[in-house]
Amino acid sequence: MITDLTHEMSMTASRDERARKSFVAQLRGHVLVNMADNMHRHYHDQVAPRYEREHGEAPADGPTVHKLMKEEDYFRFYSSIRYNAQEMVWQSVIPGIERNLKSLADKAKSLSDRDVGGSLTLDPEFEVPKNVTRLDVHLAPGCYHSEFTEGDVATGAIYDQGLNVFAAGMMGEHLCDIGDSFSNYVRLRFKDLNPERMLDMGCTVGHNTLPFAKLFPECEVHAIDVAAPALRYAHARAQALEVPVHFRQMSATKLDYPDNHFDLVYSSMFLHELPLKDIRKALAEAYRVLKPGGILLTMELPPNNQSAPYDSFYLDWDSYYNQEPYYKPFRDQDYPTLIADAGFDGDAYFETVMPSWGHSDEAFFDEVIHADGRFNDKTGRLTDGICWYGFGARK
Ligand SMILES: C[S@@+](CC[C@H](N)C(=O)[O-])C[C@H]1O[C@@H](n2cnc3c(N)ncnc32)[C@H](O)[C@@H]1O
User: Fold this and answer.
1) Average of per-residue pLDDT across 304-321
2) Whole-model pTM?
3) CATH numbers and ranges of domains, the chain
4) What is the spatial distance between Cα 210 and Cα 233, in angstroms, rounded to a whole number?
């Protein structure tokens, strides 16, 4: 059963809506666990051996595996169910949000006036980039930026409520397991950092921004995004949860902050939604605004050059079928090269795999992040034993 979100921007779902959300979450679980396991077995037992007999070698990379799997009924079935389940995630939450469109906008406005210490700065002249306006990213109708009423927060609500269904309880009450994990990583791995000011790029509704502000209460936390309705919602949600964050509408490719300004620049699930030229700009901007000694830390999926061919194929699914066309081109990059091209020293690069903060304890977490472990077949997948992957550099 999917439980309602517990902050003030949440809404009470009807019994039917709750049942629908639970069905979708269970359907997704079935696709991503049972069907995915069966599909892997089918590949391993039949598809790969057949290829090896014909070619005298195993499939060498993800695109080769994808080409083979596209001919398989099992993959076609898996893919169409997964695609439909993704659409159903959004369909399960949109009617309730439509019904409450005006009252959500009003509630956001009144929460904005609370004295929590955060702020919201929108730019009416801002031109939302095409990587957002031209796509319904991960099949979400209206993407992040569309507006339907004055002071609209609908796309933020859709993202928050939709992720609640999507995550099916794996990301914690406030859907912030990634932020909890990465902020604790910073605390335990960079004990000398004591961040005074940090930036989260591409924050959406701030799920993974707030944990930093809570863990480092002395730190001034800034978060940017290009989508006004998501930012309005983010600010209202942060106010409701009484966490001070300064949200601003801005592109990561052109940051309106001075040089050497932040101790930490963070992002999660962000870079892969940018065209490669914008990824390069955003990383160069991150380098520019970091103080010397400051840290860039970004949570993503591991790169294809470190993935087994089947895992590459499996993790690239979103790029082909989930309206995330920049995902594979990003994962095809050599991450240390991207970091060096942004201006960081060659030896400044680091990468990490960490257990989910919500599913481990501090001693285990601490041990793993200091062990320089490589990712495993749970990395980035919403299943039991999930691990998060990240990389970054120190300026
Ligand atoms: C998958 S979401 C990020 C999720 C969020 N970081 C989290 O951890 O919950 C990607 C976000 O990037 C934003 N975005 C896309 N292009 C951007 C850009 N050039 N600068 C800043 N944000 C951008 C989108 O509006 C969207 O909110």
Assistant:
1) 94
2) 0.95
3) 170-394 (3.40.50.150)
4) 13
